[in-house]
Amino acid sequence: MAGFFALGQKYQVELQPLKRFSEEQPIGAAASPGRRRGVTAVARAAAAVDPAAMVRAVLASPVLKSRVDDAMDLAVVETTAAAGAARRTSVAAAKPTGLMLATQTVIGEGLRQADLAAAKSYGATVIDEGLDGKILLKVDSVSRAFGLVELLQAREVGSVSPNFLRKVIRLAPSAPVKAWALDKIGVPAAWAITRGSARIKVAVLDEGVDTKHPSLKAAVVAERDFIGGNPTAMPDGDDAHGTACAGIVLSRSRTFPGVAPRCSLIAVRIAMGDGTPNGWVFDDFATADAIDWSWRQGADVLSNSWGGGAPSDAISRAFARARTQGRNARGSVVVIAAGNDQAPIDFPGNLPGYVTVGASNHKDERKTRTSADAETWWGSNFGATMRLLAPGVFIWTTDISGAAGYDPTGFTKSFNGTSSSTPHVAGCAALMLSVAPHLSASTIRNLLGKSAKKIAGQSGWTAELGWGRLDVAKAVTMARAASTPAGGKTKGARKKR
Predict the structure, then answer these.
(1) Which of 124, 316, 362, 465 lies in the 20 to 30 Å Cα band around 471?
(2) Which residue among the candidates 360, 419, 434, 451 is catalytic per the annotation?
(3) Please, what is the Cα angle at 354 between 64 and 484, to 5 degrees?
């Protein structure tokens, strides 16, 4: 059985080529995998894939197209932790919100000339070179990619990972209600201190951002498309998720304001729609390179409303570089969504040492399938890395222009999920750094926990609640105090605007 190591854990891999599912049923037809004898968990998961839509998505992206000779050779993946662990870790088997597919490509870091020679002798070619020593190697089949991984792992290179394609399913939206989130988390009180500084940059890594949106355009200081090969980070079709996330951070609309409206935006497109109503896809190499590009562009905060599947060392190492090398070694603040399955936290939110965010509702409850918001189709994930909760239902924010988005007005009142919780915290971190730019990423992370408001009945940290619900006013106040020497002037403080 194929396998790979990630975060020091061995994973065994079961592969099912996409073409097999196309052959078993008409492309795009509704599947009834439970009626077939001997069907595996990975086959049941793959039945949710529309092979024709996936092929169209891959062919539409010059980046994804380079990962496989024939898109039908992409293989649906199920990973199982080795060494006797029974827990299946792939969203393919256990999670309804995502899927992993294996490609013909492998990500290497820290390869020596002798390692490259060994890879080329195996039949690999270098098809891309990224930042911080990343290279992308391609072989002639998906199965042989795992052989290359094993060959390089045996040579003890810096890092080697299969390059997975990841499919994510967006949540169905909320029913619109009156705006509530900013008042609940104390944003108006924080604005009495600062609305943010233009020198503080927030990178939103997502399926693109409408950088021409009237409420976002003035904030944009950099943008890049890592998946579509376009000159801007503009999304395609109905890809409105990233624009909604960016608006929560720093929209300059008076009616739909962001948490930190005077901060700056780095728009980073890492994903694109997969041709189905609620799906989008991204791959590990492009995502890891986008992370490295973001902190090297000067991102003070990275907002990540995406995740799922088995861990990738390439992505983990890029995040680690952002956290340790960003902001002239003070560290960029990395904020990550916990996920929406009411299950253990997804990768990369399960990485320790970052700001992992769960969802709360308008009643100051943890969002579950039975909480008072009546959104029974999702619940916030939980686990050891949970830092805090933030608003995740009935969120008002920016939308892509035109009828393809959530609402034809260019704004939406129905964004939801931990995807919407995460940018609330990213915006708060940006305000904290606006008043205390010399604080380290670890200090910001700690202050976010210390300042959080306890949920009813909470006495301390829990895996479900973290340290409580985001309190922006208290977090900004504590950040300013932490940056002020006793009896002195705030170190590095910037004028309130």
Answers:
(1) 316
(2) 419
(3) 130
The H or E element that residue 241 is part of is helix 241-250
Partner residues linked to 140 by β-bridges: none
What is the C-alpha to C-alpha distance for residues 157 and 151, in angstroms, rounded to an integer? 10
Could you tell me if 91 and 167 are in contact, meaning their C-beta atoms sit under 8 angstroms apart?
Answer: no
Model pTM above 0.70: yes
| Residues 392, 421: Cα–Cα separation, whole Å | 5
- 424 annotated active-site: no
* Cα–Cα distance for residue pair 129/126, rounded to 1 Å: 8
Name 252's bridge partners.
257
Question: In the annotation, is 90 catalytic?
Answer: no
Six-digit token pair at 186?
């104390």
Cβ neighbours of 325 (radius 10 Å): 16
Q: How far is CA 133 from CA 157, 158, 289, 384, 458, in A?
A: 12, 10, 10, 31, 45
Q: How many CA atoms lie within 13 Å of 60's alpha carbon, on the beta-carbon side?
A: 16
> How far is Cα 354 from Cα 49, in angstroms, rounded to an integer?
32
The answer to whether the CB of 382 falls within 8 A of the CB of 338 is: yes
Considering the candidates 159, 174, 241, 360, report the single residue annotated as catalytic. 241
Q: In angstroms, what CA-CA distances link 13 with 147, 158, 207, 476?
A: 12, 22, 27, 45
Determine the 3-state secondary structure of 485 from DSSP.
Answer: coil
Q: Which contiguous run of DSSP H or E holds residue 445?
A: helix 441-451
The strand pairing partners of 257, in sequence order, are: 252
For every residue of 274-342, DSSP letters joined together read -SSTTEEEEEHHHHHHHHHHHHHTT-SEEEE----SS--HHHHHHHHHHHHHTTTTT-PEEEEE--SBS
| Cβ-contact 216, 194 below 8 angstroms | no
- Per the structure block, which two tokens stand in for 67? 């990962």
SS (H, E, C) 7-59: CCEEEEEEEEEHHHHHHHCCCCCCCCHHHCCCCCHHHHHHCCCCHHHHHHHHH
Q: How far apart are the first and last CA of the chain?
A: 60
Q: Is 128 a catalytic residue?
A: no
d(CA 65, CA 61): 6
Which of 343, 349, 356, 348 has the alpha carbon at shortest distance from 466? 356
**DSSP codes joined into one string, 145-161:** HHHHHHHHHHTT-SEEE
Catalytic residue selected from 50, 206, 313, 341 = 206
Q: Tens digit of pLDDT for each residue in 426-457? A: 999 999 999 999 999 999 999 999 999 999 99
Buried b (16+ CB within 10 A) or exposed e, 57-92: bbebbebbebbbeebbbbbbbbbbbeeeeeebbbbb
pLDDT in tens, 184-226: 999 999 999 999 999 999 999 999 999 999 999 999 999 999 9
